[in-house]
Write a structure and sequence with these properties.
By secondary structure, this protein is of the alpha+beta class. Among the domains are: 81 residues, Alpha-Beta Plaits, CATH 3.30.70; 106 residues, no CATH class; 70 residues, no CATH class. Helix content is 61%, strand content 10%. It has 19 helices and 11 strands. Strands 1, 2, 7, 8 and 9 form a 5-stranded antiparallel beta sheet that branches. Strand 10 and strand 11 form a beta hairpin. The longest helix is centred in the middle third of the chain and has 51 residues. It is extended.
Length: 599
């Protein structure tokens, strides 16, 4: 990034601002000041527009929707949606209340409250009671002025005519019911339902024609917000005669931008940014690794001058997802489903679907490796083709070892990246401790493998390995920080040794989760297959229907739960184990140039 500082005469400031916006490459430096009422109002408006866009996006286009006059002004459209949404909420609340009253009156039938009031005027009060069917005694009707009205769901509903000379002495519950007739309530409910249906159709019509207007309105507000931020972040000097604007431009765009600035009547200073300036970060990745950028951003962007780890964790995340889901049938569904969904989504969603397709491919790969297809263990199927492949499928022990192997490789890879990061940010002298640990672990792993291969010579405690360990120890204990004295370095090295040894073991064991998740999803798939065929009745058509329902529901649930775990746990391994061993600092802020958004 190149840092630019502009000094602009106040009369030229607004035209200069518009030219910068049109160019759209300068990330304006933010000052630590109060944003002001205008910025807060714009943010509130944007949030409101997004909220109503989200509420309309879920509505389906209805050919029978009513005609609604849609305002072309964004504010008026928001006000229209707000009013209709408020009316709809009020109607839903009224619907719930009327439904509640209808349910309360159903056991009592459709009677007239005028009759109840007429009896009350004659000194006879009608009281409403209910009791469980087991508790209700028909003899009560002979002892008291009781009339049984109905019996429903294990309860008996009855009324007691409370005259001045008679009271009821029974352990029963009295209830208060709405003073409306059942027919009136049902008519009211019909009216409310019709109003809800009409408002729903109006909002469907607004969603069909109004969403593009809301998109444009949101862009207009975002433009106003950017302008307000630009003005706030430009300092005043010389009693308001001079405005100062500071910002950053990526190196890839700098030459064209500087040539453009030279043609403007403005004074500027251009310097190469340092990490102390805390400039923004612009990620540059290839077609494959760019798909994984949203995952990395969930944790943090790299600090300026720090290596972007997206390209380094992407292949591991790809493999880890497939390891956790590990069913070729599930992977095929993800691959095809995401491909079909691309035809119906917006352009900015398509990269996420491409990522799903890649992850589906990884799932197919591990499904082939383990011989699993929709919970079916292919190594147990008595089909000649799969019988011949039994030796190529990996069993549970081999998958357990593979999970630990993946962990060991990624942790060592992270250590190697930490060395490169230290060299890039601080110089090679500060990388010797990280390089020492990497040399220790990689050399030990190689020697253990050589011993495992066989042979009379033992490499683990051989002279070459002792020499390599000594070199690594020099970096770990003596040269870990060139600014400290030797004794301080030795003390820090001992503490780092304790943390590294215990941490390495814990980090490595964390990768067992890959095996555990893959095994659990395979077992659940097998269980649902067994339930589908064991619980189905021996009836030709009905049996197959029930089997199909159990298979679809069971495997659908398994895909959802297993896919969720296959995303969360590889993210955990990436952000904790890998990032820690790679020495990832993070904390970078995204490059967002001052540019025109609305068209």
């Amino acid at each position: 990034m190149y840092k630019y500082s502009f000094l602009v005469y106040h009369a030229d400031f607004i035209p200069f601002k518009e030219k910068l916006k049109e160019k759209g490459v300068l990330h304006v430096m933010e000052r630590n000041i109060d944003p002001g009422a205008e910025v807060l109002e714009n943010l509130q408006q944007i949030n409101e527009v997004k909220r109503y866009k989200l509420s309309l996006a879920g509505r389906k286009v209805d050919e029978n929707s009513v005609s609604v006059k849609i305002p072309q002004n964004g504010s008026e459209l928001i006000e229209l949606i707000k009013n209709k949404s408020a009316d709809l909420d009020a109607l839903h609340h009224q619907q719930q209340q009327v439904n509640k009253d209808v349910e309360a009156l159903k056991p009592w039938g459709n009677f007239s409250w005028d009759t109840i009031r007429s009896l009350s005027e004659q000194g006879i009060r009608v009281r409403f009671f209910y009791a469980t069917a087991k508790r209700y005694d028909a003899k009560w009707e002979e002892q008291y002025s009781i009339a049984k009205i109905s019996e429903d769901r294990g309860f008996v509903y009855f009324v007691f005519y409370d005259a001045e000379d008679q009271t009821i002495d029974l352990d029963v519950d009295e209830i208060k019911i709405p003073e409306k007739s059942l027919s009136d309530l049902q008519n009211q409910l019909t009216s409310v339902n019709q109003q809800i249906e009409r408002l729903d159709k109006e909002l469907d019509a607004i969603a069909q024609d109004g969403l593009p207007l809301l998109d444009a309105f949101e862009q207009e507000i975002q433009d106003e917000l950017n302008d307000a931020n630009f003005l706030i972040n430009s300092g005043n000097e010389a009693e308001g005669k001079i405005r100062i604007v500071e910002g950053w431009v990526p190196q890839s765009l700098d030459e064209e931008f500087e040539n453009y600035i030279k043609t403007q009547s403005v004074y500027y200073i251009r310097t190469l940014s340092t990490k102390e300036d805390r400039p923004p970060v612009l990620l540059k990745n290839g077609a494959f690794t760019k798909l994984f950028e949203p995952i990395g951003k969930l944790f943090s962007l790299p600090a300026y001058a720090e290596l972007d780890l997206t390209a380094f964790f992407a292949p591991f995340f790809f493999l880890f997802f497939g390891f956790c889901l590990g069913d070729a049938g599930y992977g095929l569904l993800l691959l095809i489903g995401a491909g079909l969904a691309k035809f119906k989504v917006k352009k900015d969603i398509k990269p996420l679907l491409s990522l799903v397709q890649w992850l589906g491919g990884a799932t197919i790969l591990f499904g082939i490796v383990t011989g699993t297809f929709f919970g079916i263990k292919l190594m147990e199927v008595n089909i000649p083709f799969f019988t011949n492949l039994r030796e190529t499928f990996l069993d549970d022990q081999q998958m357990f070892n593979l999970a630990l192997g993946f962990g060991f490789v990624q942790i060592l890879f992270g250590m190697a990246i930490k060395v490169a990061n230290e060299v890039k940010q601080n110089g090679w002298k500060y990388s010797l401790s990280a390089a020492g640990w990497f040399l220790f672990f990689i050399s030990t792993a190689i020697m253990v493998l050589l011993d495992a291969v066989g042979g009379e010579e033992k490499w683990l405690w051989s002279l070459p390995h002792i020499i390599l360990i000594s070199i690594s120890g020099l970096g770990i204990f003596v040269l870990n920080n060139p600014k400290r004295n030797v004794f301080m370095n030795i003390g820090v090295g001992l503490w780092d040794t304790y943390n590294m040894v215990t941490g390495f073991a814990g980090d490595l064991l964390s990768y067992i989760r890959l095996f555990a998740l893959g095994l659990s999803s395979a077992i659940l798939g097998l269980v649902f297959n067994s339930l589908a065929f064991d619980l189905a009745p021996d009836i030709p058509v009905l049996g197959w229907i029930i089997t199909l329902i159990i298979l679809v529901f069971g495997h659908g649930l398994n895909i959802f739960m297993a896919s969720l775990g296959a995303v969360v746990h590889p993210m955990r391994l990436t952000f904790v184990e890998f990032y820690k061993n790679a020495g990832f600092a993070g904390g970078g802020k995204e490059y967002k140039p001052f540019s025109k958004i609305s068209k």
